[in-house]
Write a structure and sequence with these properties.
604 residues, mainly alpha, 28 helices
Length: 604
């Protein structure tokens, strides 16, 4: 039985049929139901209560396949529990045949199209997964009709309404109902007309994309409708051609259409508009990086249509290649150094050092080393929060391709949008997170040098498992140089020591360190191959630290989007940075992390 207050709330929604207050407004309904159920702490929610709450907490048009469900709806979030296992909410595992029957009943009895659409769509979406058969066709029709009604009555946010009407069109095509397809098509065209004077991203061009490009073979468009859609985008291109981002959106639609029609003249005409827009834009010409990015974008677009067999696009692609080689670029003027001043109280510093080294009596060296190693690892949760905060405050920064520049001014990577390229963005921000912590790492190591003699710290490393077999003189010279603040020398000693220690770790754990060569002998795996191919071994050894140590080692040593210290050292890139304190401190931190393996083995 449904909670009385929840029932009253849903009945009010049925009567009022108000517009949703926000994008994905169904989540607001779920929150309201949760708040009602939470008022009485003694009340135990019924199956119906849970079904209602869960229905509106699913995310429609799930952005990726992380859920692994292969469904249109996905979990609102996926978070680790106390055991480190990833938990989905809501979970598809909580849905059974009875839940589907309940939602089907509610879809048919409710009058609010927002409610009926969600109930019916869940049954349509999950039935093949839960009961191994499709939902009844009348539930498909409820979703289609409800979504059309939502858009006609403006009951949802414009972007949400766009999502809903696309769902209506897809389902109408799926059941091959020509009447519903025609109605969805009409609603899409009308929705686009409402945004005719609005150049906001996402609110125009979708009618052209869906009805001509994506589903053109499954939808009947008369010549007048088709010509009108093309004319709308052509007119918009004329209006926005000086705005690079908007022009690119319009050109991408028209170019794809003209390419499909084998209309090379019109294809090259619209591509030429975009080329001129990119080349003459003040911002894209303001520095070397942006100018290169603009030319690369033009080149990529011409290459795309060259590969589709358009000869004029090939000629244009070759021309742009020559122009890129002739660009007069001053990278030093383009790259700007940004510094931020942060005030840190002495008490905070004292408390921080006290937590590592103890208060009155100094802790054991092994304990201090362990605390230093753990405190300066890039915490996954902290990096994710930082990335979320930055992307929330500066969303436009993550809506387009980002060029990453090396320390010596060479473009080394391109990152697409945050949604499409999350792993690389995460890696980049993890490296920045380490840089933010370099000040405190320096404080901790300075304190370590004050308290621990050069001889004692050298003895500690000589007694550790992974460094015990190292050449004694080599190890002593590395640590001696570091303790004497000769960072250039110590960094160059540390890199080979670290690579040797990681190879020793993999070998001792039964991993692969050699591979056959074409001369009948064997080659040693490179550090990158060890960290990528044998990373699971490293993760298991350091599992107790609660962080992915293989990821950390890659970030510091071998990743282009990280510090890449081992590769830069080996190939002679960015040589100036090896004079700096933060590079040497970070390499020493990797050394002390590896030294902990001895402690783990002693505890077994």
């Amino acid at each position: 039985m449904l909670n009385n207050d929840v029932k009253t709330y849903l009945e009010n929604l049925d009567r009022e049929q108000k517009a949703l207050a926000s994008y994905n407004g169904e989540h607001d309904i779920a929150k309201a139901i949760k708040d009602i159920l939470a008022k009485d702490t003694n009340y135990k929610p019924t199956i119906e209560d849970i079904a209602e709450q869960m229905a509106f907490d699913f995310m429609a048009a799930y952005p990726n396949d992380n859920s692994g469900w292969g469904t249109y709806h996905g979990p609102m979030f996926i978070l680790p529990n106390q055991q480190g296992q990833m938990v989905e909410y809501p979970s598809i595992k909580r849905i059974d045949e009875e839940t589907l029957k309940y939602w089907a009943k509610r879809a048919k009895e409710t009058k609010n199209p927002i409610l009926s659409s969600r109930y019916a769509d869940l049954v349509v979406d999950f039935s093949p997964k839960i009961i191994n058969k499709n939902a009844d066709v009348d539930l498909f029709q409820i979703v289609i009709d409800s979504n059309i009604a939502i858009c006609e009555k403006s009951l949802a946010d414009p972007l949400d309404c766009k999502t809903k009407i696309k769902r209506a069109l897809v389902l109408a095509i799926q059941i091959n109902n020509q009447e519903k397809i025609a109605k969805a098509k009409e609603t899409i065209i009308n929705l686009e007309k409402k945004a005719a004077t609005d150049d906001k991203p996402g609110l125009w061009g979708f009618a052209f994309k869906w009805l001509i490009l994506d589903f053109g073979k499954k939808i009947t468009l008369d010549e007048t409708e088709k010509a009108e859609l093309i004319k709308d985008i052509e007119n918009r291109l004329k209006r926005v051609e000086k705005d690079v981002w908007l022009a690119e959106n319009a050109v991408s639609l028209l170019a794809e259409h003209y390419a499909n029609e084998k209309n090379e003249d019109n294809l090259m005409r619209v591509l030429d508009v975009l080329e001129k827009s990119l080349k003459t834009n003040d911002r894209t010409n303001s520095d070397a990086l942006l100018k290169v990015h603009a030319y690369e974008k033009i080149h990529e677009i011409y290459q795309k249509y060259r590969d589709k067999g358009f000869q004029k696009a090939k000629t244009a692609s070759d021309r742009i290649s020559q122009e890129i080689g002739q660009l007069d670029l001053d990278w030093n003027k383009s790259l700007k150094e940004i510094s931020v001043t942060t005030e840190i109280k002495q008490k905070d510093i004292d408390d921080f050092l006290k937590a590592i080294f103890g208060d009155k009596e100094q802790g054991k060296l092994e304990t201090i080393i362990a605390k230093i190693s753990i405190n300066f690892l890039p915490k996954k949760e902290a990096v994710e929060k930082q990335l979320k905060d930055v992307s929330g405050k500066h969303p436009l920064q993550f809506l387009c391709t980002t060029q990453v520049i090396s320390d010596d001014g060479i473009p080394i990577a391109k990152l697409s949008t945050l949604e499409e390229d999350y792993d690389n963005h995460f890696q980049r921000y993890a490296a920045q997170y380490m840089q933010f912590g370099s000040f405190f790492l320096t404080l901790a190591i300075d304190e370590l040098k004050k308290r621990i003699s050069k001889q004692n710290i050298t003895e500690y490393f000589r007694n550790s498992t992974l460094f015990g077999n190292e050449d004694k003189e080599y190890l002593e010279r590395a640590i001696s140089a570091y303790w004497d603040n000769d960072y250039l020398v110590s960094s160059h000693f540390f890199c080979p020591l670290i690579e040797s220690a990681i190879r020793e770790l993999v070998k001792n754990c039964g991993g692969i360190v050699l591979r056959p060569n074409n001369l009948g002998g064997y080659d040693r795996l490179t550090l990158r191959q060890l960290l990528n191919g044998q990373g699971e071994i490293i993760e298991k050894v350091f599992a107790g630290m609660g962080q992915n140590m293989a990821f950390y080692f890659r970030l510091v040593l071998t990743e282009k989007l990280g510090m890449n210290l081992r590769n830069d050292f080996a190939h002679g890139f960015g040589k100036k940075k090896f004079f700096t304190r933060d590079v040497s401190d970070r390499l020493f931190h990797v050394m002390i992390c590896l030294s902990l393996v001895k402690k783990r083995e002693e505890n077994k």
